[in-house]
Amino acid sequence: MKVEETTIPGVLRIALDVKPNDDGWFKENFHREKLAGLGMDVVQHNVAYFAEAGIVRGIHAEPWDKYMSPSSGRVFAAIVDLRDNETFGRVETFELGPEQALYVPRDVGNSFCTVTPHTTYNFLVNEHWSPERVAVDLFDPELGIEWPVQELSYTERDAANPSLARLREQRA
Questions:
Q1: CA angle, 63 then 68 then 74, to 5°
Q2: I need a surface site. Which of 49, 64, 79, 105 has the fewest CB within 10 A?
Q3: Cα–Cα distance for residue pair 129/138, rounded to 1 Å
Q4: Partners of 67 in beta bridges
Q5: Which stretches does DSSP call E strand in 22-74?
Q6: What is the dihedral angle through the alpha carbons of 74, 111, 68, 4, rounded to the nearest 10 degrees?
Q7: What is the DSSP letter of 57?
C-alpha cells in the first residue's frame, strides 16, 4: 500500500497492490493494522453495486472517516472540503479502479460517478451510519466538477442539495 497526500488536508490517495493470477487478480482491500496506521478503526463495511455507467451519488460529508475502493469497474470521485477551514470549497477529483483507494476524513464531502457498468464499490467507515450529513449541489458552477459521463442518473435528494455559496451563508 502506497499512500499519497492530496491538496485537501487529510484526504489520501492509496495505491493498492493488485496481484494478477491465472483467474484474474487478488488485492488486500482491508488490513486492520495498515488502516489503523491511517487513524481509522473500521466498524462497518458497505458494498454498493451499480449496473450502469453514469450513476452519481453525493456530494455528502458525513460524521465519519471513509476508506473507499472499487472491487470491479471504475468510478470518478469528486472530493470537496466542506470543513470550516482555509481549504473550504477546494475540489479534487480522481478516477479509481480496483488498484486504488481513497481515505476521506469526516466532514469532507465525497461523491462518485460510475464510469463503467457493473461497478462494485466498497466503503469502510469508522462510525455506524446515521442520517446526519452536510451536502452540496453536484452541479454547482463554483465547484466546477466536470463529470466524465454525459447521461447521469442521480437521486432527487442529491439534486436538491444547496450550493456552496448557500452553505457558506448558512454557516456565517
A1: 140
A2: 49
A3: 22
A4: 103, 124
A5: 24-27, 44-50, 56-61, 66-72
A6: 90
A7: E
What does the alpha-carbon distance between residue 5 and residue 111 come to, in Å, rounded to a whole number? 19
3-class SS of residue 68: strand
What are the angstrom distances between the C-alpha of 91 and each of 102, 110, 122, 161?
14, 10, 22, 17
For residue 20, the model assigns a pLDDT of 87
Q: Are 162 and 170 in contact (CB under 8 A)?
A: yes
- pTM reported for the whole predicted model: 0.91
Only one residue has cell 477551514, namely 85
Q: Is the pLDDT of residue 25 over 90?
A: no
Give 59's pLDDT tier (boundaries 50, 70, 90): very high
Q: Helix-strand-coil percent breakdown of the chain, rounded to 5?
A: 10, 40, 50
Cα 31–chain centre separation: 19
Cell digits for 119? 461497478
Place of cell 451563508: 169
Name the phi and psi angles at 157, rounded to 5: -60, -45
Domain topology for 2-171: Jelly Rolls (2.60.120)
Within its chain, how far is the Cα of 106 from the centroid?
11
